[in-house]
Write a structure and sequence with these properties.
mainly alpha; 7 helices; 69% helix
Length: 175
């Protein structure tokens, strides 16, 4: 139960920071940095307890590698989705008066950028946090957080309008 709570807390703060920094008045061009830093500190805070997945795609990747027990996969994902929904409600509370213009991204580009950078995130997690060759390292949180920063900056200027995080993409839209 403790691991599911940690997944909830980490995912909650990640999605909360995403919403608070991307909706005006937000962090502007520094939003990707704030988001990556939030992920990094949550990974350091909870990684030793739950693995610090905070993302259903990462949970799936870690499970496929054999580093997450099958019995934990569904509860992790439920905790992550629930946290995303609660964080979305909190963002709506804090930014409820904000005008959010609907985007009309190029769907193919958006999907491709989501797939590529979600793959990059899972690849980094698997290689810095679950590989026996990197056991005991102290840089895993930094590598994971900055993978999100790089993906957000790389795709942020494109018409794709991506988040590289499947959960925030599916969280409540703020209007």
């Amino acid at each position: 139960m403790k691991t599911y709570l940690v997944e909830f807390i980490g995912t909650f703060f990640l999605v909360l920071v995403i919403g608070l920094t991307v909706i005006e008045p937000g962090a502007g061009s520094l939003a990707p940095l704030a988001i990556g830093l939030a992920l990094m500190v949550m990974v350091y805070a909870g990684g030793h307890i739950s693995g610090g997945h905070y993302n259903p795609a990462v949970t799936l990747a870690v499970w496929l590698r054999g580093k997450c027990p099958t019995k934990d996969v569904a509860p992790y994902m439920i905790a992550q989705v629930a946290a995303g929904l609660v964080a979305g409600l909190m963002v709506n509370y804090f930014k409820g008066g904000a005008v959010v213009a609907p985007s009309s991204p190029d769907v193919v580009r958006a999907l491709l950028i989501e797939i590529l950078f979600t793959f990059a995130l899972c690849y980094v997690v698997l290689n810095v946090a679950t590989s026996p060759k990197t056991a005991g390292n102290s840089y895993y949180g930094l590598a994971i957080g900055f993978t999100v920063v790089a993906g957000a900056f790389a795709g942020g200027g494109s018409p794709a309008g991506h988040t590289i995080r499947p959960l925030p993409s599916a969280s409540p839209r703020w209007a």
